[in-house]
Amino acid sequence: MTTLDSPDGATPAAELLPLAGYTVGVTAARKAEELGGLLVRRGARVLYAPAIRIVPLADDADLVSATREVLAAPVDLVVATTAVGFRGWLEAAAAWDLPLRDHLAGGRVLARGPKTRGAIRGAGLVDAWSPASESSAEVLEHLLSGAEGPLTGRRIAVQLHGDPLPALVSGLRDAGADVVQVPVYRWIPPEDTAPLRRLVTGIAARDVDAVTFTSAPAAASLLQMAAEEGVWAGVLAAFADGVLPVCVGSTTAAPLEAAGLATVQPERARLGALAREVVARLPARDPVLTSGPHTVQVRGHAAVLDGRLVELPPGPMGVLRALGRRPGVVVSAMELLGELPGGGDPHAVETAVTRLRAALGASVVETVANRGHRLAV
């Protein structure tokens, strides 16, 4: 039997990590293991479910075609949106024996952020300007302001990185520019869709506490998979209340926000900042409750009792989550029955409650005769 002095499977308070007890989905195609590692080191369970895959540059006929179009005439301005995309474009062009770097040297190259600026300089080119916000909207505002001269008739190459950037492209074209879009790293659906299908099902069931997104195509792909699996409404409801959608930036968040969802974003569009945002948000949303001499926090798949993590089976955990949503309120056995995986009968509820009381203590989980059960807080 689990005791309060030494609960079975409990983690001592000194070793408790900030994301212990939480499950986080990672939809990234690139650097998924890097992001996942940051979350795992903070205690999270990570579900890897790539929502997209990248077409290799060497095999991308669309990129070859766009590069030849750029080379067909002098370029006045170049907008480089990502460091990895810009470097990859130059490397691919060199492999195809296309003189792209020398061609771009004749125009002004604008960088969307500091990493992209470093990639431009690393290629021996001069970065003419970059925005403080690292946003495409500020790049467009800069160009429309006339800071780079009139746009009418100017030839502008825009290096894309999976995201189509329709506002930037249409804004430049409306101003009279001749825009050549360069689709570096096109996104297509993953070869193995099983992990993504499991993730959208888990989101709808609220078995996941947060989902991270590092690209707009990944967000759009996840929503599309939710529709295909018939859990669109459940996924939207879960993201609106219970499952935290964390996006690396505003561009990434656009498909989710277009579906009416509020997202969480770090101040800087970096993987480390994204992981820190998850750390800051998840534990803060679950209150630490006081029950007599004890403290209890209900996390995604575990409880924190007096600062120690207590892992719980699905049945008792489902009951605890239901009680935790209304601390101090008596919840009937029939209501708790709906929280058990696979359903069951009132006896299954009593069994789950018995195991929960053994794990957390009878004084924390109270039974009110003929009425139900409650967290005594």
Keywords:
single chain, 377 residues, alpha/beta, Rossmann fold, Arc Repressor Mutant, subunit A, 3 domains, 5-stranded antiparallel beta sheet, 5-stranded parallel beta sheet, 15 helices, elongated
Strand percent estimate: 15-25%
Unreliable residue stretches: 1-7
Helix/strand class: alpha/beta
The CATH topology of the largest domain is what? Rossmann fold
Q: Largest beta sheet: what is the strand line-up?
A: 1-16-15-14-13
Biggest sheet, open or closed, and with what strands and sense? 5 strands, antiparallel
- Helical stretch count? 15
* Rg calc: 26 Å
Q: Which term fits the overall shape?
A: elongated
Tally of individual domains: 3
Under the CATH scheme, which class of the largest domain? Alpha Beta
* Mean pLDDT over the full residue set: 91
Helix content: 40-55%
SSE inventory with pairings:
Layout: E1 10-11, E2 23-26, H1 32-40, E3 45-48, E4 53-54, H2 61-71, E5 77-80, H3 83-95, H4 100-104, E6 108-111, H5 114-122, E7 127-129, H6 136-144, E8 155-161, H7 166-174, E9 178-184, E10 187-188, H8 194-204, E11 210-213, H9 216-228, H10 232-240, E12 244-247, H11 250-258, H12 271-285, E13 288-291, E14 294-298, E15 302-305, E16 308-311, H13 314-325, H14 333-337, H15 346-360, E17 365-368, E18 372-375
Parallel strand pairs: 2-3, 2-11, 5-6, 5-8, 6-7, 8-9, 11-12
Antiparallel strand pairs: 1-16, 4-10, 13-14, 14-15, 15-16, 17-18
Helix pairs in contact: 1-12, 3-5, 6-7, 8-9, 8-10, 9-11, 13-15
